[in-house]
Predict the structure.
Amino acid sequence: MNILFYLHCSAASWLFLVAAACNNNLHLSTAFTYHPSSTRAHIMSSSTTTSLFETKKSPPSIQWGIIGLGDVCTIKSGPAFYTSHGSKLIAVMRRTPGVARKWVAENREVVQRYNNADDEVELRGYDSIHEMIAENMDQLDAIYVATPPGAHLENVRQIIAALEDATATNKNEQSRLKAIYVEKPCGRCAWETRVMIDELHHRKLLFFPAYVSRAHERTQVLRNLLSDKSIGDEVTKVQYTQRGSSFARGLDGEGIPWRLSAEHSGGGLSMDMACHVLDRIDYLFGPVVDVKSTVLRKGGGGGSEEDGSYPLVEDYVSMKGRIGQCDWAAISSEGAIVECLWDFSPTNKNEEDELIITGTNGSLRMAGMGAGLPIEVLDVDGNVVEKIEFEAPAHAAQPLIQSIVNELREINIDEGHQKQLCLNRSPARADNAVRTSEVLDTILNSYYGGRHDEFWTRPETWAGLK
């Protein structure tokens, strides 16, 4: 018997359907397709097709630990580690003494409800990475590094050292650790990103970068629109503009926010914001090459970070490049022009966030940030012929985290469904993290007088300040 479901384009609804099916051991076979003529997702279930999840013997859940408990963890990502299907949160760590244990006390009830209260493993808090791994070497499958980028390489090395110490101390116990999931943009520069990937690879640990928008429903629908030739056979230009000084939040407080400190982030807001769009361009069209840029510090006026004045990092970036050759693009794009502008300078009071993709027979227009914002399809004359609405996931990282969990559990989702939300394998990989870091380095290189070293320690040499 065939059953027909109609769902509004909602990642949360789709993940709920999948989780409900799995938790109740349902034999669910689902084809999820986007129809260009409709603003709704079309889901068809049939007992005659391949099962979505093999539930005869479900693989064990993936057990996570988290390093760092800031806002990016507790709001954007944290809840997804215990609400995703087949995923449990068992350990959290923050170096400030007592903070992780306090967080556990405040959140244990809700986390354990999802983890299943009958499980022997219980959520615990730690003050050090070494302590967390020593107590959970045989329990942790994956670790999320949620600290600022300036600490990522050090954190990865601490994980490796703690793992080696725990293995030497407990010779009869075997580590379960399979993967490290690192918050974007991974390193402060490309060489840091490469080093942490190489060191994990050497120890046979997977590396997943937190480029969450790759797994968003909106991005997957966008890939389908492109591959279905909704704007023609080729993409000819990709333009992105983001303006607004309000994005540089925290400047009215004491000191410089970490996102605006090269020591902690690797640059200005372009490191935190631009990396998302650049990575999505890479995912949809191919690598950005032949990059040329103008990078400025429009605000300030000669102050220094030490006296709490305007940040020394850039606040204006304009870049131009083109799409290079690849074998993963959703549509023929090689040679397409890429033009991007990020202006977070204090003179910019009006906010703007717009991504335009131009093809040979129309264009697509949308906000570059925001998983729940619509996509507009325009004809060659610039008229809107369709507007596709979305609902943002409750937690921005949930779709990507679910895909990582599915991959680590080796969940069997047939090839036809991998194009949509229930992804069999994470679309965010080590190689795309390196490419995005390299593009950022190329864009910002002139401002910092090179990014091949610890440039954050030598602001007196930054050409952008002269």
About this structure: The first helix runs from residue 11 to 23.
